[in-house]
Amino acid sequence: MFEVSDSDRLLAEAAGVITRRDAEILLAHAWNLSRGQLLARDREPVPADVIARFTDACARRARGVPVAYLLGRREFWSLDFEVTSAVLVPRPETELLVERALALVGAGAARVADLGTGSGAIAIALAHERPQWKLTATDASADALAVARRNGERLAPGRLEWLLGEWFVPLAGRHFDAVVSNPPYIAADDPVLRGDGLEHEPRGALTPGGDGTAALATLINEAPDHLVAGGWLALEHGNGQGDWTRSALVARGFSHVTSAPDLAGHERVTSGQWSN
């Protein structure tokens, strides 16, 4: 008779409370293996310490803790980022903001700022793609900035400037060829905030309160004081905020205002050029 292996039994038990995929990822992590290596060892006994770590991770995942926090890392732009509960988990749709910044600003020398950098994912991805750019990143959270610094030291050593402070506050008197940001934009009463994982992420990085547009409004209103003539502002926003963001940019005096859709077809990143 076929004998069920330790790993099969553990995965089957976990599947009652979390997805099979998550269970495989967590078991591989607890065993310090890749998922491929885990499958190759499916007939081997699972050590007791691995079972203990896996059981604890499954319990936390069942309570909604994101897998990325349990692993301590997340891939973004094909780079491996450290993540902690001090920062948002980088999401695939945010790669569109990186793509738009690369398309808007030439490959030559440029000064670019990433505001509310969190894990540093956007700024580091840009630094990785554009060696001639000078990147500055800000965040109001010292804990988040510490994570970003560590990611920068590992993935783009010596390439980025990290500044503590809210939005443009640390950038007084400075001007950039582009400013990018993935600010908090979820409305305070949006039920998505109670969805899987989000309740464990830093709330201030998810919602500014109210209808979700306060941070976007601040960035749009203050960006002209920090952009060179012809400089760009590119913002990630919610899938229902494209019209509002375009109108706010036009009202502030930006030109060439356009929105780009994510892979799901939702307007996700809106940009405008400062010409005054």
Structure description:
Helices cover 36% and strands 21% of the residues. Strands 5-4-3-6-7-9-8 form a seven-stranded mixed sheet, sandwiched between helices. It has a two-stranded antiparallel ribbon with strand order 1-2. It has two domains: 6-63; 77-274, Rossmann fold, CATH 3.40.50.150. Helix 1 crosses helix 2 (20-30), helix 2 (20-30) packs across helix 4 and helix 6 (95-104) packs across helix 7. The chain is elongated and about 70 Å long. The protein has helices spanning 6-14, 20-30, 35-40, 48-62, 67-71, 95-104, 121-129, 142-155, 214-222, 242-252; strands at 73-76, 79-82, 110-115, 133-139, 160-164, 176-181, 227-236, 255-261, 267-274. The protein is built from ten helices and nine strands. The chain has 276 residues and is α/β, with parallel strands linked by helices.
Structural class, please?
alpha/beta
Unreliable segments of 5+ consecutive residues: none
Count of distinct structural domains: 2
Shape summary: elongated
Question: What's the CATH architecture of the largest domain?
Answer: 3-Layer(aba) Sandwich
Helix content: 25-40%
The largest sheet has its strands arranged as 5-4-3-6-7-9-8
- Stated plainly, the CATH topology of the largest domain is called Rossmann fold
Helix count equals 10
Strand content: 15-25%
CATH class of the largest domain: Alpha Beta
Number of separate strands: 9
> Major sheet, described briefly?
7 strands, mixed
Overall pLDDT confidence: 93
